[in-house]
Amino acid sequence: QLHRRGFRCLHGVDGSAGMLEQARRTGLYRELRLCVLGTEPLPAPAEHYDAVTVVGALGEGQVPSTVLPELLRVTKPGGLLCLTTRSNPSNLRYKAELEAALGRLERSGAWQKLLAQEVEYWERATTEEESTQGTGYISGVVYIYQKCPVPHLEEG
C-alpha cells in the first residue's frame, strides 16, 4: 500500500534473514538490513527517516517496548512514527507496558500523539481464547506519533 501511494524509498529491518529474503523478493525495498529490534541499534544515523513504522512486531515475546527511544532516534524532527500492537488476552500486559512507555515519551515532549485507534478485526485468531468476543479475530491498536522538533535555545 505504501508503494502504491508514492512512497518509493523504503528501508526495512528484521531479525530474521528468511523474512528479509521474502521482503527482498517483493522488489519494494531500496535497503534491507538484519537487525534485532530492542537488542541492537538500528542501522541508520540519527534523524534519518521521515517516517518509521513497526507493524506486527510490538508484542509479548517479540520486540520490547524499550525500543521506542531508538525508533525516535532515527526519526527526523517532525517525522511520523506508526506503531501497532494486538489487544488479545495474551498481549494485554505487554500492551499496558507499551502504552505506559508511549505516555512517558509524550509527557517528556519527545513526541505528540496524533492517533490511537482500535481496530476490531486486526488479524485472525489462532485459538478461540484469543478471539475477541467469539469473532474469530484479534483486535489491535494503531498509534501514530509525531516527533517533536528540537527546541532552539536562546543565546546570551
Automatic annotation (TrEMBL):
A single Pfam family, by name? Methyltransf_11
Question: What's one GO MF term for it?
Answer: S-adenosylmethionine-dependent methyltransferase activity
SUPFAM superfamilies attached here? Answer: S-adenosyl-L-methionine-dependent methyltransferases
Lineage top rank: taxon: Eukaryota
What range(s) does the Methyltransferase type domain occupy?
4-82
CDD domains xref list: AdoMet_MTases (cd02440)
Mind telling me what this protein is named? MET27 protein
Q: Which organism is it from?
A: Edolisoma coerulescens
Q: What gene does the UniProt entry assign to this protein?
A: Mettl27
